[in-house]
Design brief:
Blueprint lengths: L2 E5 L3 H12 L3 E6 L5 H9 L3 E4 L4 H4 L4 E4 L8 H8 L4 E2 L1 H6 L5 E6 L4 H14 L4 E5 L5 H7 L4 E5 L2 H4 L9 E4 L14 H8 L11 E5 L3 H8 L6 E5 L9 E4 L2 E6 L2 E6 L8 H16 L4 H10 L8 E6 L2 E5 L6 H9 L5 E5 L12 H7 E7 L4 H7 L5 E5 L2 H11 L5 E4 L12 H15 L2
Parallel strand pairs: 1-2, 1-4, 2-3, 4-5, 6-8, 6-9, 7-8, 9-10, 10-11, 16-20, 17-18, 17-20, 18-19
Antiparallel strand pairs: 12-13, 13-14, 15-16
Length: about 450
């Protein structure tokens, strides 16, 4: 009996463990932290042995194969030891792909992944496809393969998930953009991060499709060094008729293997340049799945925005409050600022991942009236932004931050939480940060 060891007891790891059990493997799961009661209940229900709070090394190294959760780095000592012993280390997505013949629509990029994944899923669902949602959003792909059946999966993939995928194949792969992010995981080298992202193309044949933003210089440079058989479907916000999707006179135009159609951008439910790109990518994917253009148009108009991504919270004393907590890198904040039509009080800060703030400097000068730095260490923010805007202040809690923003903002302006940074210095996650922001804004109204 094959012995499968799963490292990590979250959604991904528990899903992999259940799939291993369903396929007749001897499964054991270990987590260095604590496993939530919800996941313990699932493991116990499936009679899967587990431990928490430590890793028993001899049990891990007795594995025939290891499934590693995305958050565990390849440089973790136990992973290094396993690889030295030639024990295969794979991702949950890699495991799941072995046991399904469903079509895989896989989406990656530094920014916009979640919105594009959910939008693509929404279009597919509205068109009546038997579709599952997986990866960084939705349920674990492995859990769905183990307990459900879908004809197609829409999967959001981070670079961490792509790191340990080898034989898995995306029938449709989407590359939205590549900007510096998670460089601390990739030896602070952008080329290593880009190479991880481009693993989404591996194993694609002439029957498969690669959808990408043609104006991204890193994507263009990487493609020149690759020899892929996949059919190429570029998109652009420029009037470029050589693309599968492009913008002209305020309309999105599509030409996908001879099928031409268009849609006014003002009819999209999502606003901002970044959402033009997201809508193009999702629409090309839908067209390649033979979904009718009328269905795509209708779904693009009815989709609801993603929580924590340019999410309108409330208007208090004439000031709009926008929750963009999911903006954990500089490029994501660039898109947020680019979409703002009012003067902004901007909330920045958190765990810096080697950020270069020069990308947003001009937008800050043009649109931002004040910055409130919300983090444990705001020195880098001060060194860059002090003097660029009239006020750069500090806060050590969300309540203090929102109170300061409320005092600084005037009617007709927008308070924008778009931090540029990870959340882990003061918050459990970007979701926790966003929820606290919304709660504090709600308290202003009382």
């Amino acid at each position: 009996m094959k012995r499968l060891v799963v490292i990590g007891g979250g959604e991904s790891g528990v899903g992999a463990a259940v799939l291993g059990k369903v396929k007749g493997m001897d499964v054991w799961l270990t987590d260095m932290g604590s496993i939530s009661p919800h996941y313990k209940e699932i493991l116990d229900k499936w009679e899967i042995a587990w431990e928490e709070g430590h890793h028993t090394e001899e049990k891990v190294l007795a594995a025939d194969e290891i499934v590693k959760s995305p958050g565990v780095p390849l440089t973790a000592p136990l992973i290094v030891k396993a690889q030295e012993r030639n024990i295969p280390v794979i991702s949950e997505i890699e495991l799941a792909g072995r046991y399904t013949d469903a079509k895989m629509v896989c989406i990656t990029g530094s920014n916009g992944k979640t919105t594009t994944t959910l939008l693509t899923y929404h279009i597919f669902k509205e068109a009546g496809l038997n579709v599952g949602l997986a990866g960084n959003v939705g349920k674990s792909l492995a859990m769905q393969v183990a307990t459900e059946h879908h004809d197609v999966y829409v999967i959001e993939l981070s670079s961490f998930q792509l790191d340990n995928m080898y034989d898995f194949k995306a029938n449709i792969a989407v590359m939205l953009n590549i900007t510096p992010d998670h460089l601390d995981r990739y030896d602070h080298k952008l080329e290593n991060y880009a190479a991880a992202k481009f693993r989404i193309m591996q194993n694609q044949s002439s029957e498969d499709a690669f959808i990408y933003w043609v104006d991204d210089p890193i994507i263009s440079a990487q493609l020149k060094s690759m020899n892929s058989e996949a059919r190429m479907f570029p998109f652009s916000a420029r009037d470029d008729k050589s693309c599968a999707a492009y913008m002209s006179d305020g309309e999105l135009h599509f030409d996908i293997e001879g099928d031409e159609w268009s849609m006014p951008s003002e009819e999209l439910s999502l606003r901002g340049l970044h959402n033009i790109y997201n809508s193009m990518a999702a629409s090309i994917s839908a067209s390649l799945m033979d979904i009718k253009k009328e269905s795509i148009r209708k779904a693009l108009a009815s989709f609801e925005a993603v929580e924590h991504r340019l999410e309108y919270v409330a208007t208090v004393d004439g000031v709009k409050y926008i929750n963009d907590s999911k903006a954990t890198n500089v490029n994501s904040t660039w898109y947020a600022l680019e979409s703002m039509t009012d003067k902004v009080v901007l909330i920045l800060g958190g765990k810096d991942k080697g950020n270069d703030y020069s990308e947003i400097a001009q937008l800050v000068k043009d649109k931002v009236e004040a910055i409130v730095c919300l983090g444990v260490d705001n020195s880098k923010l001060h060194s860059f932004f002090d003097g660029m805007v009239p006020v750069v202040d500090d806060a050590r809690s969300m309540a203090e931050c929102v109170d300061k923003c409320h005092a600084l903002a005037h009617a007709g302006q927008t308070v924008l939480l778009s931090p540029c940074c990870a959340s882990f210095d003061l918050f459990k996650s970007y979701e926790d940060r966003g929820e606290q922001f919304k709660q504090c804004v709600a308290s202003l109204k009382k």
